[in-house]
From TrEMBL:
Alphabetized PANTHER family for the sequence: ALPHA-KETOGLUTARATE-DEPENDENT DIOXYGENASE ALKB HOMOLOG 3
Residue stretches making up the Fe2OG dioxygenase domain: 96-197
PROSITE patterns: FE2OG_OXY
Protein name (Swiss-Prot/TrEMBL): Alpha-ketoglutarate-dependent dioxygenase AlkB
Pfam family, one: 2OG-FeII_Oxy_2
Species the sequence originates in: Hymenobacter jejuensis
């Protein structure tokens, strides 16, 4: 199947549930789990350092420096597996990316809170291409301002090998999250390919 628009107002969100064949997704999950230098970063909340509820790694071209929730992230180099996936995603998204943020949700208690990817270095209408590998987790989307964007919050199960594309004004008008779950779930690895502009 190809990328299909979700048809959300004030947004351009497209979804392909089977972007990668299952065996390719499995092999990639194993390779990235084993070779990426995963770290549990902390961020400062109300003046106190708090460990993020997930593992991360930031990779990209040397020029793609990035600040994220008060962290300044130096990109790690592209690995061969990341380069291969980058080119597949670029062909599907019609965009050339210079970086990728990897998130490893080890189990159901790992999560990502409500946010928009609207840091200044991403520019006003960022293209963000999100590949999911491993356990299915629920991705939530809700309007930032329900008066300006009247739409119910929605949930999208992101299966292994799926591709979710957020572009246009999505980050201006919508927030997204990956909530915790008490269901027993295995690890899920997510990659968000991005274009970071030097400021
Ligand atoms: O894990 C996901 O599907 C979302 C990741 C995300 O929103 C981010 O990295 O900014
Ligand atoms: Fe995000």
């Amino acid at each position: 199947m190809a990328l299909t628009s979700l048809g959300l107002p004030n947004a351009e969100v497209l979804f392909d549930p089977d972007f990668l064949p299952a065996t390719e997704a499995d092999v990639l999950l194993q390779e990235l789990t084993d070779t990426i230098p995963w770290r549990q970063e902390s961020l400062v909340l109300y003046g106190k350092p708090v460990l993020q509820p997930r593992l991360t790694s930031w990779h990209g071209d040397a020029a793609a420096r990035y600040r994220y929730s008060g962290l300044s992230l130096e990109p790690q180099p592209w690995t061969p597996a990341l380069q291969r996936l980058r080119h597949q995603v670029e062909a599907a998204a019609g965009t050339v990316f210079n970086s990728v943020l990897l998130n490893l949700y080890r189990a159901g208690q790992d999560s990502m809170g409500w946010h928009a990817d609207n840091e200044p270095e991403l520019g006003p209408e960022p293209v963000i291409a999100s590949v999911s590998l491993g356990a299915v987790r629920r991705f939530r989307l809700k309007p930032r301002d329900p008066h300006r964007t009247p739409h119910e919050p929605l949930s999208l199960d992101l299966p292994s090998g799926s591709l979710l594309l957020m572009q246009g004004s999505t980050q201006q008008h919508w927030l997204h999250a990956v909530p915790k779950t008490t269901r027993p779930v295995g690890p899920r690895l997510n990659l968000t390919f991005r274009v970071v502009m030097p400021l």
